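Supplementary notes for students who missed Thursday's class. We covered one full example, reproduced here. Read the sequence, then the structure, then the short commentary at the end.
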Amino acid sequence: MHPQFPLDDSLIYLNHAGVGPWPQRTRDAIATFADENLYRGAAAYRRWLQTETQLRKRLAELINAPTGDDIALVKNTSEGLSFIAYGLSWNAGDEIIINRQEFPSNRVVWESLATRGVKVVDVDLASAATPEDALIDAIGANTRMLAVSSVQYGTGLRMNLPPLAAACRQHGILFCVDAIQSLGALRFDLGEVDADFVVADGHKWMLGPEGVGLFYCCPSIRDQLQLTQYGWHMLEHAGDYDRTAWEVARSARRFECGSPNMLGIHGLEASLSVLQGDGGLAEVERKVLNNVTHLVDLISRSERLELISSSEPERLSGIVTFTAPGADSYSLYSALMESGVICASRGGGVRFSPHFYTPPAAVAEAVARAEALARTIIG
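Structure (token representation):
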């Protein structure tokens, strides 16, 4: 058992693509924060602000952004995507390219712009030689933006982002990446992925509490986003309450209108300190992919189970989705949950998503239980 993850012995936790458990360090940080509030109120607020600054630095490091000033702390991915959708000036006839595997948050927000005359082009990723080719082929004269998840939530399909970024630059269109299913599990580098926007919650692979995440907007276009919320915290001179003249912050804090989620900030900062500790994200990624490769191999050799996810090494992420031919997938998911295998029903099958600390033996046991339960369900 990993010392930072003292999970209940009765559970095999394979749902990091849904909601990840907290590390021990995160629990301790939040307990300490709660005690400070209980016994001393906001006496330590200046130190809390240092934790907030440290979190911005950690998130900047996570995506290789220039500085923590480039990171806005948002409630969730949907809020960040909404900043983009309702911050940009659209013209009737503008097109946004998405694909049919996207999570609703990365579809609905763009479809809501239909009232402004914006068209969503929903691409079938199987319509060309590669998923990237399918998206690039859809770029046309009216395309304004390509919005894509770094990893597709249902199947775990890992997108090759650099060619997409290059195509966007070639055609002069914006590139938006929903990175919620990769940050904290797989490395991300803005030096390789020239994205205009990166958005992600902290409660999945980053192992933090719900209610806090990151929003990155390329500094060169930051002031092109019209603000839809205003308040004291997004001002350049926030905290100077006697100042009557005001201007919007030049940093990404301009997107944070009011008081920060200090509890969530303390939690996520602690979680990232675990992920960015010994070995850093390179070691985390190696162990995640080892677990997933093990899963893919076991399922591929199974007589009862069938992969939905790709088995191509370059397409592997932290997610593996499978079915049991002849068995109802939701029934199999429910049976696995009852047996203590914490997973999800996604992508037309059962979704397993182990993290770096998940023991390989637990991965093998989960597959064995899936085979046995499939046999029971089929009869």
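Commentary. DSSP finds ten helices and 13 strands in the chain. The longest helix spans residues 280-301. If anything here is unclear, bring it to office hours.
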